[in-house]
Structures are given as structure tokens and as C-alpha cells.
Amino acid sequence: MIKNSGLQNNRPARLDDLLRAAVARLHAAGAPDPVRDTRILARWAVNLSAAAMAAEPDQGVSPEAAARFEAAVAAREARRPVSHIVGGREFYGRWFEVDGHVLDPRPESETLVEAALAELPQSQPRRVLDLGVGSGCLLLSVLAERPASSGLGVDQSVEALAVAQRNAAALGLAARAALRQGDWLSGVDERFNVILCNPPYISETEFQELTPEVSRYEPLAALTPGGDGLSAYRTVIPGLAEVLSPGGAALFEVGRGQAEAVAEMLSEAGFASRQLPDLNGVARVVRGTR
Ligand SMILES: C[S@@+](CC[C@H](N)C(=O)[O-])C[C@H]1O[C@@H](n2cnc3c(N)ncnc32)[C@H](O)[C@@H]1O
Fold first, then answer.
1. Is the pLDDT of residue 277 over 80?
2. For residues 61 and 69, is the Cβ–Cβ distance under 8 A?
3. 79-132, pLDDT tens digit by residue?
4. Does residue 153 have its Cβ closer than 6 Å to ligand 1?
5. Ligand 1 pocket: which of 90, 91, 94, 102 to mutate (most atoms <8 Å of CB)?
6. Class assignment of domain 88-289?
7. Protein residue whose Cα sits closest to atom 19 of ligand 1
8. How is the chain split into domains, by residue range?
9. How many CB atoms lie within 10 A of CB 187?
10. Is pLDDT of 1 > 70?
11. Fewer CB near the terminus (10 Å): N or C of the chain?
């Protein structure tokens, strides 16, 4: 059934009517940012740029586009993430395919990309390892910015690796990004200049407080290892010395309040560490060096 579509009296729906009704519905459904979501869904469903929408806000919308928009709004009312509805999201200036098998790339993870780029010269070949590659957003963003470098992405999930592979191909990076199924460092027998790792780090307690977008639609194995959320760091850090090149850096994304614990683990493994803040000032990346 098409609700609030503006199709009454056989007149074409008007864009501004559709947008207003959608914002009200998403607001009532508890979506955190109904205006932003409505704009993204409308641009996708009606296939218009933001400028074209702003230039003619009362333009007519074809019945097909109105129906597509209605389905998208209904999915968002059920708190399906916007990225799953439109098939992807932008991360570090590039488009990444995203589905229910991968973590929806988070803006704060761009801090990890920035930190990696600071370690990598523009035009000398370097090797980058991404542990828990997911959609590939970290490894592929770094390789896109550093054309002489190449890397390996590891994930336990074959479904996630398939998404990463499609993203690598779409970005023209497949030749420089190898992808492999594996359990963290097991089977990795090469040294890397930069090691990136954004593991599942949500604790069991925090998991209870997640929004429906996250807890219903994102893969559990990408979100939480259970317990205090730190088990992946406990597994990876003791093996780092075997895979990090001399002068290299290991960069870990951490959850709020976890940086000290991860710095401590690095210190026990013989690494010096530094904490780097995200744009909100939260210690988001811990950098370990020998
Ligand atoms: C938080 S997500 C990060 C995804 C992506 N790197 C990003 O930053 O958006 C963690 C990823 O680690 C993967 N993972 C979980 N346990 C793993 C394990 N034991 N070995 C390898 N990958 C694992 C999950 O499948 C998931 O893709």
C-alpha cells in the first residue's frame, strides 16, 4: 500500500509533499536524523542531485519513483540502516558497497585512515595489512591514496570478503589489494609496514544499548566479541612483533574508554604507544611502534 504518497486525485506526487510526510514518519519511528535520511533516500529513489532537488522543491515525481521512495521510507521506519537501503555509503570521499554482512563504515574510522596515511610515503612501495577488513573501507581508502603501496585484507567472514572484493574492483584496486579468509594473524607469514585493525570491540554491556539500526541489521561478529570487548586485541597484539616491519606502525581503532587498556597490552608486548583522538576528541586510535 502506498501511504502518504501524494498520488491522490491522479495528480503526480510533489517532491516537497513526499519529503515532508517522510520526515514526519521517520521522526515518529524514532530515527535519529529524519531530515538527513529523507534527503538521502529521496536523492536515491528519485535519482536527483541535492542541487536539482533544491532548485525545484515542488517538482512532480513519477509514480515509479514515488513507489521506490515509499518502499525506502517504510524500510527506514523499520530502522533498516540507510546504507543498506541505498546499497552503500561514502567513506573517506569514496563510495563503498555495504550490506548486512559488513560493518557499516563509521565516520570515526576515518581517523584510522588518516593515521595510516601519515605513516606511508606518497610514492614508495609499502605493504599494508588490514585485520578484519570488512567492506574494505580502511585498506582500500589507504591504497587509493598511496598508489605505490599494496596490501592484504584478512577477515573470518567469506561474505564480508565478497563485499570487499567488489569494492576493490569498483575502485580499480583489485590488483593491489589481496583478500584472504583467516583468523586474525594466523597464517600471515609476511611483514608489513602498516598494520590496521578495527576489531569488534563493543562490550556485552554496551551491546544492550545499541540502536535498532546496529543491533538488528549489522553482523554480530563485526560488533562484539562479548565480555569486556577487548579479546581481539588480546589475541592480535602478542603476535605483532612477527609481522611488523622494522620502523613500522600498528594502528588499532578502540572504543570509548578502551585506549589505556590497549596501550597497556602494547607495552607488555614491547611496543611504545601513542593515542590519537577522533574529531570528537575521543581517543580513537592507539598507535604501536617498536
Ligand atoms: C568492526 S568490523 C571492521 C570492518 C572494517 N575494517 C571497518 O573498519 O569498517 C570487524 C571485522 O572483523 C572481522 N572479524 C571478527 N573476528 C575475526 C577474526 N577472528 N579474524 C578475522 N576477522 C575477524 C569481522 O568479520 C568484521 O568484518
1. yes
2. yes
3. 999 999 999 999 999 999 999 999 999 999 999 999 999 999 999 999 999 999
4. no
5. 102
6. alpha beta
7. 183
8. 8-78, 88-289
9. 10
10. no
11. N
